[in-house]
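Async update (no meeting this week)

Hi team, since we skipped the sync, here's where things stand on the single-chain job. The sequence we agreed to prioritize is pasted below, unchanged from the tracker. I ran it this morning and attached the output directly underneath so nobody has to dig for it. Comments welcome in thread, and please keep replies under the output.
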Amino acid sequence: MNKKKFIRHKEKIIILTKGNICRTKKELLKTTIFKKILLLYLEFLRQKDSPLLGIIPEEYKNNKKKYSEKILTLLQLLVEKNNCVVKAENKELEGFFKDTYLLNQFVEELYNYWRNYERFLILLSGKDKDYHEKPYRSFKNIFEHLTDLVRGSYRDICENITNKHPRVYRQVSAGFQVGIIASKPKLNIPVIYNKLKNISYIRQVLIEPPLIINPPMNKRSGSFKEIKENIFQQLDIKPEEWLCFPAKVGELNIQVFFHYEFIALGTALANLFDLAEEKDLNKKPDAIYLFGVDEEDIKRFGEPQTIFYDDKENDLMIGFVSRKEEYGYFGYLKKMILTLHNIICLKKGRLPVHGAMVKILFKNGKKRNIVIIGDTGTGKSESIEAFRALSQEHIRDLTIIFDDMGSFDIKDGQLKAYGTETGAFVRLDDMHPGFVYGNLDRSIITSPDKVNARAVLPITTMKEVTEGQIVDMVLYANNYENVKDCKHIKEFRNWKEAFKIFKEGKRMAKGTTTESGMTSSYFANPFGPPQYKELHEVLAKKYFEHFFEKNIFVGEIKTMLGIPGYEKKGPEKAAKELFKFINVK
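Output:
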């Protein structure tokens, strides 16, 4: 590759290119990128005093530069010639073959070293007209071609060292895990934010799932604070270190800018939100979010460094989160986006709800649209998944409208619900194993070896999210009450009784945040309503009164998810009882 840039940050490698790539294995091993990877690998081996350094002949052992150059030359030759030819034609390399098994293991571990990185390829398409003229199918070919080159080079080198052909071939991910096409489109943004125009916008994403990422954090803490001044112009933003994911968040257009340090989390948005189309970019955004600003630029606001500003002059919201490692968790990315969405909804007279909605069509002809409201870890997604398990016997169709955040609106006297995401960020610890394995082929998995392991995966369509669904039932997800002498489903008698329970927002914390034990959050939704409490309180009363005026069923579903030993049984029992209940009603 030429006209490229190589960025390494801890466990991530990012390569930016204008589209020129190497065509042969020989060219691949002559690239600056391969040389950098090899030097990083050798340094890694030196730091751990690896036995693999035993391949180095005595005459080169005390000269790092010399043996690094010789190993580079050796691998460049071995990709085309077997060991006999290489030794015969290059006497100075003969010492590297004193133990061919060790040399082969050296190459095996080099291959593994490369593959242990999270690897991103970004094609910068230049001027925006290139986006329209470039045949985008060719990017898939580039992506697959590079994978074949890397894998083929590894195999040829190993075969030329051992003079043996493997009998089992494993088609592992060898090239890049994520490919991105980015350009600089014409934008309609207020003049004050003009420096964002120099940042490339993601126009297409190619993911090779299952993609496993290990961000520095596996849970979220604190809240998002409103500030009373717009600090955007004070920020030190280097456009070459940022990308923008223009997200369709329900009906809203939120432009999400993220620093390369958080590229794995930023590209995972592709499994959660639809990318905005060109027609959306021609409109002024509803909100802007900068994920990964320099902590020095916002440290005067204290901790947590998760803040937002209501730019009334330009009629948009703008959010800021620090680049500190402690904010390297997908929850900070997703939840700030939804906070901005919720505040905009409140201003429009809609009631944001932290919950999940499912549209169910039964085989007996009945239909039910059910909204389950609750904070993180209360069993919303788990109950819906348990409900899905009943589908073969009793359900014709089950469609998820939203999995985490939506909003209510009253149109023509009817309560309708709208979603935000076309994907879900689900907690794997409490999901049925069949769900996990059944969705591996399209999942992005975060922190798989930690508490609160999660998967980001697509679950619905933009049409379902935005068309507006009539609501039949509104349930509060109670994850803390042990159901022994009472039922999993409880109906509230009046709007004031319901309002009190929903407002208290009680739950048993499940390790999804840094909270523990019994907690409470205003309307189980810390993402917008507490910051705009006065406005939210008025709207909430209006909507709860409407629920009961229109005879919408309002109650509790007791999932028991927060009770040890009932993480799976609780939601399953609750789903079964809910099924029986709505089939009778």
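Quick observations from my side:
Residues 128-133 have pLDDT under 50 and may be disordered.
Residues 137-162 form the longest helix (26 residues).
Reply here if anything looks off.
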